[in-house]
Each structure stands twice: as structure tokens, then as C-alpha cells.
């Protein structure tokens, strides 16, 4: 799954930043990184989870570590993770705004990109359910009789190698699949929607760029906190006296183009289903064929 791979890559990308550049807080921060990306993953899969809330919760949890280990090194001994001081820092983060505009910008970018990715993922799941349902379409008695006559009646005359004529095959299968053919227009509208969502994911709301940008947003936020450390005053409220990774970045344009090509190819799937079936191994391009009653010239 491409989306989940991008999430995993982005999570590793951010973890490497914390471990390499902000080692003093990385061990305590990594669980919050895991929680953030777990929430993003669940959102992509359709869970009722707010991306904005997940991002702000991540920075809320990050602030006590940043304040006691980066802004005021050596203060980490003032209390554990469950102390009143840490809880106070966590709750005052959005009022103090120690990370500047970066949390809000990151939340906005991810919400737009993951929103498009979520809609595309849910649409694909619905399409899969429709396709699975068509596998269990019941055939009428007339259809079964027609299929048996087309495939096996020639065997009764000892003609085991002869194949049905193309026109005959089409007539039989179009009759059998008449109800399925009614799905053609809804299917075309569905594939058009998939195309629009795919362009949204790959274009203005690029999911790949948004996820790969998480590392940069967090880094900028931490640098902002360090730079403006002397201005961050929570003492009265709370009672308080990078190395670049060498991994190859994933790219999705090729995957996107391939997916769009498949959509174009199968846009007329239900309307062309009889033709596709009759082009299979049951029909061959010989000079003679089985008409349902006799061997005839093509």
C-alpha cells in the first residue's frame, strides 16, 4: 500500500532527525512520533480521527521536552512525565506558542493532503466491494443453457477442438451479462471520480510532499523554540524557576501515471465485458467455428 509506505518512510525520516540532531529529547519524543503517525494512518483508513487534533497533540506533548531539554537544559529533573509541571506545560503550549506558525501550517498541509488520500482510499474500497459483488451474480436458466450449448454441444458431435464463433459468443454473453451491463454508467462516473481524486492526491494536495515535509516542519518548529527561548515565559503559570538521511526518497509520479492508465483502460469494463470474455481462450481466430448448430466458415 503506497500510502502506508509513505507514512512509514516519513515516520523514519522524522525519527532520524530527532535521534541525530536532538538526541537529548529523542528517546522521550519517539513515542509521541509513533502516536502521531498511528493517528494519521488510522485517518487514512477511514477512522474518525482529526488530523489537526493529532498534530497539535503531538506538539503539546513535545513542548515539555523541548522546554526542559533544549530551551532550559538541565531542568528535566524537575518532574517526571506525569508531574503537574509537565501537564501544565502541555496544556499551555498553544497559548505560549513556542513553535511559532509551524504546527498550524503542518496541520493544514497534512489535513488537505490526507483528506484527498483518505477519500481515494475509501473510494477504492467501495469499488472493490462492487467488483466482488459482481463475482456472485446469479445466472438465469436461459443463460446457463446458452453457455452449455456454446461450449459443449459441439463435443456431442465429436468436435472437441472447434471453438465458438465470435459473433455467437457475443450474443450469448451479452444476454447473460445484460444486468451487469447496467453498471456501465455508474462505473464510468466512479472511475472519473477516482481520476479526480488521484490528481488531487498527486497535485495540489500532494500526499507525498506533505508527508515528506513533516520532518522539515518539526525541525523548523524546534529551531524556532530554541531561537525564541528567552521569550518563552511559563515560569509563573507552571511554577518553574541536523544530519541529512542517506535513504532514497520514494517517488509516486510513476505509480500515479500507471494507476491513471489502468483507470482509462477499464473505464468501459462492464460495457465491454462480453467482448473481453469472448477474446479469451474459448474463442480462436480459425477459418471455421461453432455457430451453436453446426460448423461454419468464419
UniProtKB/TrEMBL annotation:
<keyword id="KW-0336">GPI-anchor</keyword>
<dbReference type="GO" id="GO:0098552">
    <property type="term" value="C:side of membrane"/>
</dbReference>
<keyword id="KW-1003">Cell membrane</keyword>
<dbReference type="InterPro" id="IPR001863">
    <property type="entry name" value="Glypican"/>
</dbReference>
<keyword id="KW-0325">Glycoprotein</keyword>
<dbReference type="Pfam" id="PF01153">
    <property type="entry name" value="Glypican"/>
</dbReference>
<protein>
    <submittedName>
        <fullName>Glypican 5c</fullName>
    </submittedName>
</protein>
<dbReference type="GO" id="GO:0016477">
    <property type="term" value="P:cell migration"/>
</dbReference>
<dbReference type="GO" id="GO:0005576">
    <property type="term" value="C:extracellular region"/>
</dbReference>
<keyword id="KW-0654">Proteoglycan</keyword>
<dbReference type="GO" id="GO:0009986">
    <property type="term" value="C:cell surface"/>
</dbReference>
<keyword id="KW-0472">Membrane</keyword>
<dbReference type="GO" id="GO:1905475">
    <property type="term" value="P:regulation of protein localization to membrane"/>
</dbReference>
<comment type="similarity">
    <text>Belongs to the glypican family.</text>
</comment>
<dbReference type="GO" id="GO:0090263">
    <property type="term" value="P:positive regulation of canonical Wnt signaling pathway"/>
</dbReference>
<keyword id="KW-0732">Signal</keyword>
<comment type="function">
    <text>Cell surface proteoglycan.</text>
</comment>
<dbReference type="GO" id="GO:0005886">
    <property type="term" value="C:plasma membrane"/>
</dbReference>
<keyword id="KW-0449">Lipoprotein</keyword>
<dbReference type="InterPro" id="IPR019803">
    <property type="entry name" value="Glypican_CS"/>
</dbReference>
<keyword id="KW-0357">Heparan sulfate</keyword>
Amino acid at each position: 500500500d503506497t500510502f502506508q509506505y509513505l507514512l512509514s518512510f516519513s515516520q523514519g525520516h522524522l525519527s532520524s532527525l530527532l535521534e541525530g540532531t536532538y538526541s537529548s529529547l529523542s528517546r522521550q519524543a519517539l513515542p509521541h512520533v509513533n502516536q502521531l503517525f498511528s493517528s494519521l494512518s488510522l485517518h487514512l483508513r477511514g477512522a474518525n480521527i482529526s488530523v489537526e487534533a493529532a498534530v497539535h497533540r503531538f506538539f503539546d506533548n513535545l513542548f515539555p521536552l523541548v522546554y526542559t531539554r533544549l530551551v532550559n537544559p538541565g531542568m528535566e529533573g524537575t518532574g517526571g512525565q506525569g508531574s503537574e509541571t509537565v501537564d501544565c506545560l502541555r496544556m499551555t503550549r498553544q497559548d505560549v506558542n513556542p513553535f511559532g506558525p509551524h504546527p498550524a501550517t503542518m496541520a493544514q498541509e497534512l489535513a488537505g493532503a490526507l483528506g484527498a488520500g483518505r477519500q481515494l482510499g475509501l473510494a477504492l474500497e467501495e469499488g472493490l466491494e462492487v467488483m466482488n459483488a459482481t463475482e456472485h451474480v446469479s445466472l438465469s436458466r436461459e443463460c446457463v443453457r446458452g453457455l452449455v450449448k456454446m461450449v459443449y454441444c459441439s463435443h456431442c458431435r465429436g468436435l472437441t477442438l472447434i471453438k465458438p464463433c465470435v459473433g455467437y459468443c457475443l450474443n450469448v454473453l451479452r444476454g447473460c451479462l445484460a444486468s451487469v451491463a447496467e453498471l456501465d454508467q455508474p462505473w464510468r462516473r466512479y472511475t472519473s471520480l477516482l481520476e479526480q481524486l488521484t490528481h488531487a492526491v498527486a497535485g495540489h494536495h500532494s500526499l507525498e510532499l506533505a508527508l515528506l515535509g513533516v520532518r522539515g516542519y518539526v525541525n523548523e518548529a524546534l529551531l524556532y523554540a530554541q531561537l525564541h527561548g528567552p521569550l518563552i515565559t511559563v515560569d509563573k503559570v507552571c511554577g518553574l524557576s541536523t544530519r541529512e538521511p542517506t535513504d532514497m526518497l520514494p517517488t509516486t509520479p510513476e505509480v500515479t501515471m500507471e494507476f491513471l492508465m489502468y483507470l482509462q483502460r477499464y473505464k468501459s469494463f462492464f460495457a465491454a465485458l462480453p467482448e473481453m470474455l469472448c477474446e479469451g481462450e474459448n474463442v480462436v481466430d480459425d477459418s471455421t467455428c461453432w455457430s451453436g448448430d453446426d460448423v461454419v466458415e468464419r
